[in-house]
Amino acid sequence: MAAKFEIYQDKAEKYRFRLKAGNGEIIAVGEAYNSKSACKNGIESIKKNAAEAAIVDQTPTAV
Q: Domains of the chain by range and CATH?
């Protein structure tokens, strides 16, 4: 099964999304959006930009 984005409403009736892996595990969650269309735009932004995103490690370096 392929990964999928799920859109849902939280208790405050804001729109959110979660990205689930093929095995059903949640691997990413989005912020709260005021509208479903804004939530969908957030998903599209991730789909467009994530493949080329750099990894920035901000953890302390061991001495």
A: 4-49 (3.30.160.160)
